[in-house]
Write a structure and sequence with these properties.
With 490 residues, the chain is mainly α. It is built from 24 helices and no strands. It is globular.
Length: 490
């Protein structure tokens, strides 16, 4: 049976409807409403995509099922990771790890250089671990607390943390997205990383300059206020240097490339043990004395909301935790995003959009510009950075070959436009996760993620100048080592 070709407007309709709905809700109801109801907007866009894609028998049931399966394979593994991130955040807070880091930050970090310090430190940790998610869920949470108590706006603090974490994730050879971009584009991993430095270093330098200037210009808490907060922390928690064994072991596990789920589970257990060892007063306040009190404490910390009274309202809000319950809205949004991505792929809507993108490209600048624009589109349409990288590589690999462009140019542009911008999309799994972990809505921190939105712009700018871009002779291929094999997507 011959199916009628799908018009381009019909393919774009679900994404356009979603974007219009988000912008309208933002203007009318505000960012909090968008954050709380994004899953409804995604499900509505999924229905529009399903109706549009299947109208006139353009889509078969088997095609739709394949699209949903592809989306689920990349999305479902993130759900237990999200739940464990919730338990790590709760146990690290109540065991004293995060309060210890906050106390050190309040005591030793000079406020005018705080944003710069947060960005650099998160970048360093992310390079070592290869994981922006883990960096933000641990060290990032601590910097978020420090910045809030120092008087910086949540948007600026989250922007500095995310910029640093995604820079490190992007250039680390331990990063799954970095390996995936190289593999999908058939480029050697270290060739890919070296080539990325051409666009990544300028973007980071500009971002650090912005954070340095902003830190000096923005108002911050004075010394007496910081001293009062430090006293409140020391009164509520027993801040013992041995507490730092917990993050040290966690970072070691990550550096050794232990499975992400096992690492997060081990970190949760270490944090839970730390509550009983270092913070017996917290156990008594939550669950009471005895074995039943210990059981109640563990259950509440891991599964539901927990609040402590520190004597300081801002600290009370900071040390409150949500456990797995706090991540359920994030899980719901991730599942909704999975449905939307599955519909866009299964109905052929995404394929129709990508065909329109590639058919008009004739030169180097057009190829890089289209790849960068597609990164944002794919992050919006699939709601998952892994799918976006894979689909983007498949979209443009033949085009780059036809234009005699190196594979490393494709892999670099994918990283510049997909992995670092995924966190800027409110319904993308990265945007959802970091917003929940840091307690700042995506639309609030988006303007301050300087590195993340500079990266695709820098990629296009370098393409315009032609710097270090080699256009191969016909049928010539770049001399590269075999591409690495990806063995984990954590």
């Amino acid at each position: 049976m011959n199916r009628r070709p799908l018009p381009l407007w019909a393919a774009i309709l679900p994404v356009a409807a979603l974007l219009v709905a988000v912008v309208t809700a933002l203007v009318v109801k505000g960012s909090d409403f968008v954050a709380d109801n994004s899953y409804l907007l995604l499900l509505g866009a999924s229905v529009i995509g399903l109706v549009t894609g299947c109208a006139g028998a353009r889509c078969s049931r088997s095609d739709l099922l394949k699209g949903m399966q592809t989306s689920a394979r990349q999305t479902v593994p993130a759900i237990p990771i999200l739940l464990l991130i919730g338990t790590v955040a709760a146990t690290w807070m109540l065991s004293g790890v995060v309060p210890m880091l906050i106390e050190m930050g309040l005591r030793y970090i000079y406020p005018p250089v705080f944003l710069l310090t947060a960005c650099c430190f998160c970048a360093f940790i992310s390079i070592l671990t290869g994981s922006s998610w883990t960096t933000i869920a641990t060290i990032g949470v601590a910097f978020m607390g420090i910045g809030t108590l120092l008087g910086f706006s949540p948007g600026w603090v989250a922007g500095a943390i995310i910029s640093g974490a995604y820079f490190g994730d992007k250039i680390s050879p331990l990063s799954d997205t970095t390996v995936l971009a190289a593999t999908s584009s058939e480029v050697n991993l270290f060739t890919h990383i070296r080539y990325m430095l051409i666009t990544t270093i300028p973007s980071l330098v500009i971002a650090l300059t912005v954070f340095g200037v902003a830190g000096m210009m923005l108002p911050s808490a004075d010394a007496p206020a910081r001293s009062a907060m430090t006293t409140a922390l020391e009164t509520t928690f027993h801040l013992n240097p041995w507490i730092m064994v917990i993050p040290v072991i966690t970072v070691t596990l990550i550096a050794l490339r232990v499975n992400t789920l096992l690492t997060l589970a081990a970190s949760t257990l270490l944090g839970l043990a730390g509550i009983f060892i270092f913070q017996p007063q917290v156990v008594q306040a939550i669950g009471g004395e005895g074995l039943s009190g210990a059981f109640h404490t563990a259950r509440q910390v891991l599964l539901t909301d927990t609040a402590l009274s520190t004597g300081d309202a801002s600290l009370d809000t900071l040390v409150a935790t949500g456990g797995m319950k706090g991540m359920l809205s994030t899980v719901m949004l991730v599942v909704s995003a999975m449905c939307f991505g599955g519909v866009m792929m299964g109905t052929g809507l995404l394929a129709r959009i990508t065909q329109a993108f590639t058919s008009l490209i004739r030169n180097r600048v057009g190829a890089v510009g289209a790849t960068a624009a597609s990164g944002l589109l794919l992050n919006s349409a699939t709601a998952d950075q892994y799918l976006s990288i894979i689909v983007g590589a498949n979209m443009y690999r033949n085009l780059y070959s036809r234009l005699n462009l190196e594979g490393r140019l494709l892999s670099r542009t994918l990283e510049d436009s997909v992995s670092v911008t995924s966190v800027l999309i409110p319904w993308n799994s990265c945007g959802v996760t970091q917003s929940s972990v840091l307690g700042v809505s995506t639309l609030t921190y988006l303007p301050y993620c300087v590195f993340n939105y500079l990266s695709p712009l820098m990629s296009v700018l370098i393409a315009v100048t032609g710097f270090r871009i080699i256009e191969l002779a016909h049928n010539e291929t770049a001399e590269e080592e075999p591409a690495p094999v990806i063995n984990e997507t954590a």
